[in-house]
Fold:
Amino acid sequence: MANRAQLTKPIVAGVSSTRGCGQLHLLTGQRVERDLLDTTSLSPVRQRVCALAARLSPAARWLMGPVRCVTRWQTGQMTELSGRRRIIVTGGSRGIGAAICQAFAQLGDAVAVHCGAGRDAATALVASLPGSGHVVAQADLRDPDAVRVMVDEAAAVLGGIDVLVNNAGVFVAHEIDKVTYEEWQQAWADTLGVNLVGAANVTWCAVRHMPRDGSARIVNVGSRGAFRGEPRCPAYGASKAALAAFGQSLARALGSSGVSVTTVAPGFVETDMAAASLKGEAGIIRRAESPFNRVASPAEIADAVVYLASRQAQWASGSILDLNGASYLRM
Ligand SMILES: NC(=O)c1ccc[n+]([C@@H]2O[C@H](COP(=O)([O-])OP(=O)(O)OC[C@H]3O[C@@H](n4cnc5c(N)ncnc54)[C@H](OP(=O)(O)O)[C@@H]3O)[C@@H](O)[C@H]2O)c1
Structure:
């Protein structure tokens, strides 16, 4: 996988080769800053393709246009993908989701930035993302029909879906001895509706647009709360535990189709969702839960999601990756 720091846009074609993972990217429309043309340790066939790509005339590069031609080798098998990876990120309008959208776009992927109520934020994010082909995709995840339309439309614009990130979530307080029975029911319906059933429905729809060649990925954004408990938001803890179990079930169900499914479980992250919890004295205590005496940045979660969505991470399928700065350790 090309390193983000090595790529800047725009300008000419370049060739990047990450030898360790046996992957070669022919990138048009992006300039490779560092010299990545050292192909001496590649096989003769790969070296020949590198040489050929390096000799592409400007005209040929122009014909290839903004679409990146990505050629990948994996354990001796070559897959040619015409164009970039096609990514859909739920809750991409802000917070962790926005950081995930930025991270994929930075790599040259085309991203459908899903939003609920925040269409303006999603539109602004799409306009600010590097690269092209990004699109806003709006739906209230509690509405199954809207979800289906949203995913099908996003897939039509992107030309399919290679990676789904189930990131959207809500975190509403409903302490059992403080809320009414009606409030309690509403909190459970909303929380499970977005965090669990919404994710399940997006997944059902997205899977139908995924390639079955081993490259498709689903990454769920769960939570440390699945394992540590959420006394003020029990539906949230339950939804995230169920999301992790959902991911494991789908990893088993879809592995034979080459789809890898994983879950990340962050502790506190600096976003709108955690803003109230991280204020003042309570924030100091929460940061001190980690020996690093801080909480995560959205970009740190995005980096892990990008890895789990990569071709190299297929064997991580079924795993749940804790991202909590050692604030909560489990076996
Ligand atoms: N922040 C943390 O400390 C933390 C810790 C562990 C796990 N997480 C998980 O990480 C994920 C992202 O959290 P965040 O902190 O980035 O949250 P955030 O800043 O509050 O953003 C939540 C996102 O979910 C979307 N969303 C909420 N309700 C929706 C609905 N009914 N339909 C469609 N989209 C909806 C929002 O879209 P609109 O704004 O467009 O409505 C927004 O993009 C969540 O799953 C969360 O549970 C967060």
Remarks:
- Confidence is low (pLDDT under 50) at residues 1-43, 49-83.
